[in-house]
Amino acid sequence: MSIYFFHLRDGVDLLLDEEGRECDGHDAIVQMTLRDARSILSEDVLNGLLDLDRHIDVEDADRKVVHHLAFMDAVEIRMPS
Questions:
Q1: Considering only Cβ atoms within 10 Å of each terminal Cβ, which end of the chain, N or C, has fewer?
Q2: Residue 78 lies in a domain
Q3: Total structural domains in the chain?
Q4: 81, part of any domain
Q5: Phi-psi region of 62 (alpha: psi -120 to 50; beta: other; left: phi over 0)
Q6: What is the average per-residue pLDDT within 55-72?
Q7: Residue 62's domain spans which residues?
Q8: Do the beta carbons of residue 33 and residue 6 sit within 8 Å?
Q9: Taking the CB of residue 72, how many other CB atoms lie within 10 A of it?
Q10: What per-residue confidence (pLDDT) applies to 4?
Q11: Which helix (DSSP H) or strand (DSSP E) does residue 16 occupy?
């Protein structure tokens, strides 16, 4: 397993993941990133906010971005008809 860093970004701020997490391949990275984004969004909704203007960049140990997830892509939005 390799260490990957999951950085949370919005239009202004950056929250760096200094510790990183071990992941076993790209599929695990994708699933972990999706779970993280949805967890953050669900907490926001409980507080009355839905901010889709954020994303998570995942970097490998060489600081190369290996995955990018925009919060907008983490959920399906259904509008009333």
A1: C
A2: no
A3: 1
A4: no
A5: alpha
A6: 97
A7: 2-73
A8: yes
A9: 12
A10: 98
A11: none
Tokens 């397993």 sit on residue? 1
Mean pLDDT score of the chain: 95
pTM here is 0.90
User: Mind listing the pLDDT tens digit for each residue in 53-63?
Assistant: 999 999 999 99
What is the C-alpha to C-alpha distance for residues 6 and 8, in angstroms, rounded to an integer? 7
Structure tokens at 54: 């954020």
Beta bridge partners of 9: 14, 55
Token pair, residue 35, equals 């779970």
Residues in the chain: 81
pLDDT at 11 over 90: no
Beta bridge partners of 67: 58
With bands split at pLDDT 50, 70 and 90, how would you rate the model's confidence at 13? confident
Please check whether residue 79 lies inside any domain of the structure. Answer: no
